[in-house]
Design a protein that fits this description.
It contains four helices and no strands. The protein has 118 residues and is mainly alpha-helical. The chain has one domain: Helix Hairpins (Orthogonal Bundle). The protein binds adenosine-5'-triphosphate. The site of adenosine-5'-triphosphate has 11 residues, from helix 4. It comes from Hymenobacter ruricola. The chain crosses the membrane at residues 28-45, 90-112. Its main location: membrane. Belongs to the bacterial diacylglycerol kinase family.
Amino acid sequence: MWRRRVASFGHAFRGVWAALGSEVHLRFHAVATAVVVGLGFYYGISRLEWALVAISVACVWSAELMNTAIEALTDLASPEYHPLAGKAKDVAAGAVLLAALGAAVVGALVFGPKVFGH
Ligand SMILES: Nc1ncnc2c1ncn2[C@@H]1O[C@H](COP(=O)(O)OP(=O)(O)OP(=O)(O)O)[C@@H](O)[C@H]1O
């Protein structure tokens, strides 16, 4: 039971690691996450602001990992051109875009006043 739980965690981390190795976008997110965490400590943001930043960062990472998974499955199922394959990839990319826009709004609201003054 516990061994299977630990193995599942291992598979999940292996997935994140594999995606980090293959996806330039994810490496960009890793750098952006490090910068945001650094800014959070530098400006001493509140617990609620940390919560908003954490949710935003997690949403972007989750969307990007799902996008990577859908890209892989699409390439497996339809290596040749197909409108549905294109739709699947475009919709998955749209999910990443929305998560990134939401994170940008949170970032602007949390850090904007601290960086540029009220
Ligand atoms: N098999 C396919 N059939 C139809 N259109 C496709 C197909 N593969 C890719 N496309 C189109 O090309 C776009 C780019 O696809 P691609 O696989 O290069 O992903 P990407 O956006 O470059 O992702 P990443 O840069 O994260 O690897 C898709 O969003 C889709 O519109």
